[in-house]
Input
Amino acid sequence: MSKALFNKVSEKDIEYLEKVVGSRNVSTEEADIITNAIDASSITFHKPEVVVWPDNAEQIIKILEYANRVRIPVYPRGGGTSNVGTVPLYGGMVVSLRKMNKICEIDEENMIVRVEPGVIYDALNKKLEKFRTIFFLQIHRVVLHVLLVGWWPQMLRVVGL
Ligand SMILES: Cc1cc2nc3c(=O)[nH]c(=O)nc-3n(C[C@H](O)[C@H](O)[C@H](O)COP(=O)(O)OP(=O)(O)OC[C@H]3O[C@@H](n4cnc5c(N)ncnc54)[C@H](O)[C@@H]3O)c2cc1C
Output
């Protein structure tokens, strides 16, 4: 893939994003840009141009439709604890899922939970205590604060899928 395939984020793009998620949930501040330019691997550093924090699926749909239309690359971001260098290689937009942290449903009988993508292990496991069970990847104190969803795409990348 080439950088030439993508456009830079413009003022007009920022205005659109602010309309969708509110101006408090869009940032081009250096502190936000830098913290989203690295992950736990520390092997690569690539800055996004903008970071957004949606809090529902409808907002994500609007963001993705727009980004696709204006050709801005999008990187979903969970806890940023991946250790394989999953950072914004082509600039563009980080969509942070931290605000989408609801545990929607616990189906005890079938042992299924339905969560939003920003739920962290620790929060889920606290909810599961009363059922005397845990979500399994509880291997390290830091991992308790890892977001659930980022783990899966990261592992697909590790095994080369
Ligand atoms: C101390 C430590 C120990 C670890 N031990 C293990 C281990 O034993 N086994 C193991 O498998 N892993 C381990 N990991 C890695 C672990 O898998 C990752 O830290 C974690 O799963 C990444 O989740 P994240 O939410 O921080 O994702 P991020 O780092 O934010 O993202 C990782 C990737 O997933 C993508 N992504 C994130 N959210 C979404 C989403 N909602 N939809 C689509 N794509 C998304 C991102 O774009 C990125 O490509 C360890 C990490 C640490 C720091």
Notes: The first strand starts at residue 26 and ends at 27.
